[in-house]
Amino acid sequence: QVQLVESGGGLVQPGGSLRLSCAASGSIFSINDMGWYRQAPGKQRELVAHIFNDGSTNYADSVKGRFTISRDNAKNTVYLQMNSLKPEDTAVYYCNAYIRVFGTPVNYWGQGTQVTVSS
């Protein structure tokens, strides 16, 4: 069984920083793409950042220049460094990954971690 477990969320003041981590565990053969999504109250879940197997990345326009996604393949972990946080970044952040146990990669989600930006 594969699990994605996020950590690092919390309450931070505007302008502050947080680092989210998401570790994949279980009977993993390989991990393809990984990413972070977020969902604010009353809104749809949206892509925040995505990192491909070759290390290339893409970001939502709203976080470009402030957030950085990275991954440690040896640890099956993806990170999201969030700087210059704004109140509009408040949301539940979800980790996402395409993981191959055997056969075709399957899309997995973490349970989510709350990020609140408020003074």
Structural commentary:
This protein has 119 residues and is mainly beta. It is 0% helix and 55% strand. The chain is built from no helices and 11 strands. Strands 2, 4, 5, 6, 9, 10 and 11 form a 7-stranded mixed β-sheet that branches. It has a 4-stranded antiparallel β-sheet with strand order 1-3-8-7, with no helix packed on it. The protein is elongated. The N and C termini lie far apart (40 Å).
Estimated structural class: mainly beta
Strand content: over 45%
**Number of separate strands:** 11
Largest sheet: 7 strands, mixed
Distance between the termini: 40 Å
What share of the residues lie within helices?
under 10%
Enumerate how many helices there are, as a single number: 0
Q: Which overall shape is indicated by the principal axes computed on the Cα atoms?
A: elongated
The overall average pLDDT, rounded, is 96
Our Rg estimate from Cα atoms comes to 14 Å
Element string (H = helix, E = strand): EEEEEEEEEEE
Low-pLDDT runs = none
Secondary structure layout:
Blueprint: E1 3-7, E2 10-12, E3 18-25, E4 30-39, E5 46-51, E6 57-59, E7 67-72, E8 77-82, E9 91-100, E10 106-109, E11 113-117
Parallel strand pairs: 2-11
Antiparallel strand pairs: 1-3, 3-8, 4-5, 4-9, 5-6, 7-8, 9-10, 9-11
What's the gist of this structure?
This protein is mainly β and 119 residues long.
